Recover the amino acids of this structure.
């Protein structure tokens, strides 16, 4: 230290503690910040999700399967709602036949065995078929092969027996499993892993396979290939040995809300069957449906259905008065998904009413009348009434034709939410087309004559699905 200059100790300490910001420190701070900023300005290429749902396309090939004839259902009819005319192929047993069809008319179905109807091109959308009888009335609309179907209220006993018919329409084998719901859910070896060879039909008599006295529900699942499934229900008077036969319509899947339209009139018994396929107890509320409302009848409490079971409830008393006053159906609302059916016992005949599926675009069905509406000598004429309900305000177009394709009725029916409209169809109606306008609808046709039968309306199959193909992922 030079003479005459004095430095305080505090100043020395302060200078030593002051950090020096050198070039390396600046770069270490600035470079990462610049890098982040530049990357933020870089536009990343978009990432495309290659997963796409199948696309809808107009149907160019269609298959509809009709069950084999029975003593009560000797007749068969087929048609198309495509708006076109042409020939379709019908395979029944070893016979293959070309049958001309046109929209609005009904062509006779050849053969006695189960019939596989195939249409191509413009005839494919709206392919229809019906198996039926009129002495007494029986009906079964021919079905499109499906992966799962439900049949509620079948039997497997001496007085009440059901036969399940499985039809394989394709060139490869098909496999199916049948689960039954009685007092509990169960299956047996003969109902599990059933293989149906190509172009073959297998009939399963439940009374011979799983004898039971209780009401049953069948769930038919197809694990390979395609199958059409139909159930013929038979009830035998063990004293007189007289047999009542009727086809039991299918239900596509259990539902929380089941609306069953179409109750034939008469003074005999009626019962409601409800199946609970779940693992928990389900409670269901039953209402009577009229033309303009629905109500819970006095004396009918909430129905409790144990897990995996089918429960039967008598409706004979609660429907006695309402039917005379215009009741048109039954509504079953549950706290878990169930299936249901109503059995109407009508003297020497019986009829089933099942939940009606929603119709969004178009529905059509064939009805069991002879060509021209003429009945054989002594036969009771067939009369038909259409019942249509809507989810909201709108309308429905109703068109009826006779078997030759002549238009008998072209009517627009106004719809209100919660209301059910009844339309009396002209005598001789063989082809019925119903198109909703501005709303979704449900519907069924009640046929009366020698006995009764109920035909639920189903959405017409007019479109197919085309899968989207994408490269495989490693």
């Amino acid at each position: 230290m030079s003479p005459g200059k004095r430095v305080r100790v505090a100043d020395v300490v302060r200078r030593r503690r002051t950090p020096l910001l050198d070039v390396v420190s600046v770069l270490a701070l600035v470079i990462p910040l610049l890098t982040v900023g530049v990357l933020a300005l870089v536009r990343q290429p978009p990432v495309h999700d290659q997963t796409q749902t199948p696309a809808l396309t107009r149907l160019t090939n269609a298959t509809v399967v009709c069950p084999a004839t029975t003593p009560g259902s000797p007749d068969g009819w087929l048609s198309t709602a495509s708006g076109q005319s042409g020939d379709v192929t019908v395979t029944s047993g070893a016979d293959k036949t070309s049958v001309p069809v046109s929209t609005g008319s009904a062509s006779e179905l050849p053969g006695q065995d189960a019939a596989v109807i195939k249409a191509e091109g413009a005839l494919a959308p709206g392919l229809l078929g019906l198996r039926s009888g009129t002495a007494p009335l029986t009906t079964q609309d021919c079905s499109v092969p499906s992966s799962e179907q439900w049949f509620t209220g079948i039997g497997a006993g001496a007085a009440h027996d059901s036969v399940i018919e499985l039809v394989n329409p394709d060139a490869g084998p098909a496999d199916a499993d049948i689960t039954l719901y009685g007092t509990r859910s169960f299956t047996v070896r003969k109902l599990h892993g059933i293989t149906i060879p190509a172009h073959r039909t297998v009939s399963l008599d439940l009374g011979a396979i799983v004898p039971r006295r209780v009401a049953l529900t069948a769930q038919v699942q197809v694990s390979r290939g395609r199958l059409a499934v139909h159930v013929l229900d038979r009830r035998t008077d063990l004293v007189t040995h007289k047999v009542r036969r009727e086809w039991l319509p299918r239900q596509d899947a259990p539902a929380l809300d089941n609306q069953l339209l179409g109750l034939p009139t008469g003074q005999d018994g009626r019962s409601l069957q409800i199946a609970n396929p779940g693992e928990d107890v389900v409670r269901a509320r039953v209402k009577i449906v009229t033309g303009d409302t629905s109500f819970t009848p006095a004396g009918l409490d909430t129905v409790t259905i144990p897990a995996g079971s089918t429960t039967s409830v008598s409706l004979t008393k609660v429907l006695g008065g309402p039917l005379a006053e215009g009741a048109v159906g039954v509504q079953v609302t549950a706290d878990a998904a169930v299936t249901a059916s109503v059995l109407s016992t009508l003297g020497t005949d019986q009829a089933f009413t099942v939940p009606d599926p929603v119709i969004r675009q178009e529905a059509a069905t064939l009805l069991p009348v002879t060509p021209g509406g003429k009945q054989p000598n002594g036969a009771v004429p067939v009369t038909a009434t259409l019942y249509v309900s809507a989810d909201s305000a709108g309308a429905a177009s109703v068109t009826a034709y006779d078997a030759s394709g002549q238009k008998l009725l072209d009517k627009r029916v106004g719809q209100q939410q919660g209301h059910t409209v009844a339309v009396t169809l002209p005598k001789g109606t063989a082809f019925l087309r119903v198109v909703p306008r501005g709303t979704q609808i449900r519907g069924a046709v009640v046929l009366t004559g020698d006995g009764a039968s109920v035909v639920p309306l189903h959405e017409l199959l007019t479109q197919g699905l085309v899968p989207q193909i994408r490269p495989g992922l490693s």
Summary: Residues 23-41 form the longest helix (19 residues). The chain has four helices and 35 strands. Residues 96 and 257 are 42 Å apart (CA to CA).
